[in-house]
Protein 1
Amino acid sequence: MTKLRILTYPDPVLAKKAEPVAEITPEIKQLIDDMVQTMYESDGVGLAAPQVGHSIRLITLDDTGPKERKNPMVILNPVFSDCTGKKESEESCLSLPTFTCKVNRFDSVTVKGMNEKGEDIEVKAEGLLAIILQHECDHLEGKTLVDHASRLKRTMYDTKVKKWQKD
Ligand SMILES: [Zn+2]
């Protein structure tokens, strides 16, 4: 398994709508393994394929975190149904170093999709797991936390990122 390079904002791949995955090829299998590894080694609870440069509808997550690693999950072509309740969550993202932002999320969600074996799955989630699912699926729509932030907050981050690029 390889630790992949995580793209950071404003890489254009992060702003693109990702394409559905038609079948689990050996290349996709390899990508899934590498993404899970990369997520854990980067201290993350979730990762979306566009974050590692693949504009396809694939996410990996584990709400127990990189220390416990008890609930690794892979979902291809995720689609939401039955989203209920409201919750404000403070989030960060591996693609947005130092950035945090309060986001309005659903409290509980149901996601349908396909697992790494190509089987249909349905995941009912609430709390942290529901939030991670919504965060990662945002990435598949080309949306990141900066799109949830106020214009001022985004402008300030843009300035910071430009300064990093110069240094
Ligand atoms: Zn993210």
Protein 2
Amino acid sequence: MPSLDDVTVLVPTYNEAETIGQVIDDFRGAGFDDILVVDGGSDDETDQIADARGARVVYQSGTGKGQAVREGVTEHVEREYVLMLDGDATYRVEDADAMLEPLLEDQAEHVIGNRFADLHEGAMTRFNRIGNRIINRGFAYVHGERFADILSGYRAFSRESFLRMTLSSDGFGIETEMSVECAKRGIRTTVVPISYLPRPSGSDTNLRPVRDGGIIFLELYRRAKTNNPLFYFGSLGVFSTLTGLLIAVYVGVEWVFAGISHEVLAVVSGFGIIVGVQLLMFGVLADLILTLHRDTLQKIDETTESDS
Ligand SMILES: Nc1nc2c(ncn2[C@@H]2O[C@H](COP(=O)(O)OP(=O)(O)OP(=O)(O)O)[C@@H](O)[C@H]2O)c(=O)[nH]1
Ligand SMILES: [Mg+2]
């Protein structure tokens, strides 16, 4: 029977001196004996405090939360399971059991804590709430999975399933990437309700909502290419076709009712429609290829499973 001895608590930190001591005390108090703090070169006392409270402190070789998580898991975790959370005391140790249960009972390989189940007042700005909602909707639409809170920083996963993911994000795109990889690679994923608390006053955010939100959107869209090519190429195709048609209508109306002819616009319009229709067709083809590819992969899986 797996236990807490199989779990490493992973906390990426950058300037969290205000809160990191509390976080480590809480988790040690709950029986976690391997707490790994991956520090991004904080210029406050984060690393000293973490070390003094009995955490294992390592320094990331690059920058950003994403790089810290990737390096932490691949190079500094030996145990089978990882419980990942932020160092800003916004997640509660009381939720740790619920996060780990599906893993330890082998019902899931990746667990996402849903912050919206119990979002405390002041924990998230209205702007971030709206951004999160749009991103979660978009994700469900493109990837066909409802994970409720794909950007959540409270996650539990098996190290093995993490290593199966293709991750490249350095910054706050890492949660998006993990969610996409869960959907794409069929990693068994469960969502559990958790509480999300406000940062204590005096502790500063590392998130730049507009810039990081933009990166997350781009990441989602880019990843749609291999998981939902019909959406990726189709949306561009529809946009291009519609623009072309709109210009065509304008050119037509001007020509019929005012007797003015717009040759250049007519060419642009024709070009937009042709490119758009081609993109659409390409999307359909890519979708077909992907479906066949998935069938093949499944057959391979079945064959190897029955062999072993
Ligand atoms: N190692 C490392 N950790 C980082 C870096 N940037 C952020 N973090 C940590 O990643 C966690 C999440 O960052 P936050 O700033 O809390 O981001 P957030 O939770 O989306 O935003 P808030 O709503 O302000 O809390 C925190 O523990 C940060 O200290 C970094 O460059 N390197
Ligand atoms: Mg935070």
